[in-house]
Amino acid sequence: MTSAQPVRIGTRGSPLALYQAELIASELKRVSDGALVGEIVTFSTKGDQLTTERLINSGGKGLFTREIDQAVDDGSVDLGVHSLKDVPSILPPGQELVAFPERADARDGFLTTNGITRLQDLPEGAILGTASLRREAQALALRPDLKVVPFRGRVETRIEKLKKGEADATFLAMAGLDRLGLSDLANPVPINDLLPAAGQGIITVAGRPGRLTPQIRQALAALDHAATRAMATAERAFLAELDGSCRTAMAAQLTHRDGTWHLVGEVLAPDGQSKWSARASALLSASMDDLSALGIELGKSIRTQAGGDLPVFED
Predict the structure, then answer these.
(1) Percent of the chain residues past pLDDT 90, beyond the cut
(2) Which fold has domain 5-101+202-224?
(3) Where in the chain is the domain with CATH 3.30.160.40?
(4) Strand order in the sheet with 147-149
């Protein structure tokens, strides 16, 4: 009897990150009929170690992936599992995003402890807790009277801060809340109110294809979801065109209806009082190259609207 092949999977150690890595391990075992067995290897990233300050003060995007990227590069793990919205536009040389399981709910969830279900209904001057520049700018666009305070840490940490009264409300991704069994704590926010971050709700698997066995590559191909890969491709191309980082508030989402892909993107000033948005579409039969071009087109349109230079948050 042939023994199962181990697959070392690198992940952060938070409950949500572990859930995502264990999901990938379970899927690899399922699609390979038990021939592949995931071994979870946890890492504490620079982003995990920041509990109070903004990401822009410590290097911005990539703070949740660098240690895992390094482990993939040096062979300590075979695969890295990430939330796609944490992955920089430019990957380490030789690495690829080798699988995108089906996207979960991309919306933000609105949380309070006083029964209020919408940002618009918070009292005058209420305190919003968030470390997301996008959410801060989008919230201020709707409610410029709000006071925003930094909320960093794991999902459970931010919920506890809210319960302690450190803020009147906060936002968390519905996908993460669903995965942790906490979705009943939040009210999903309509996309027309808060356009999600590019890649929100998508888990991705990173690896160096040349080092992966044919069996692993075959299993990854089986769990790759074509529509989700399309969404990731267009949304990440939009970010890359705008040099998407943690210093500019931006959002994007690709959806499909009536046989057509629809991409919408936006960039906001830090105070939310200026916003540049654009839309583009493509046939559902569009190739990945076409969808990448769609994202680039949308990014260029917004940059033109903004006059060339995008507004950034200062440290």
Answers:
(1) 83
(2) D-Maltodextrin-Binding Protein; domain 2 (3.40.190)
(3) 235-305
(4) 147-149, 127-129, 169-173, 108-112, 187-188
Domain 108-188 indexed as CATH 3.30.1520.10: no
Q: In this model, does residue 158 exceed pLDDT 80?
A: yes
Among 81-95, 171-185, 236-250, where is mean pLDDT lowest? 236-250
pLDDT at 247: 81
C-alpha–C-alpha distance, residues 249 and 303, integer Å: 13
Q: Which residue has the tokens 């080092």?
A: 211
Asked if residues 96 and 218 have their Cβ atoms less than 8 Å apart, the reply is no
Tokens representing 101 are 């399981």
Q: Is this structure's pTM higher than 0.70?
A: yes
What was the pLDDT predicted at 105?
97
CA distances from 271 to 58, 113, 137, 145, 164 (A): 22, 25, 6, 10, 27
CATH of domain 235-305: 3.30.160.40
Range(s) within the chain of domains with CATH label 3.40.190.10: 5-101+202-224, 108-188
Contact 116, 61 (CB under 8 A): no
Catalytic sites, residue numbers: 86
pLDDT of residue 243: 79
User: pLDDT: is 315 or 252 the higher one?
Assistant: 252
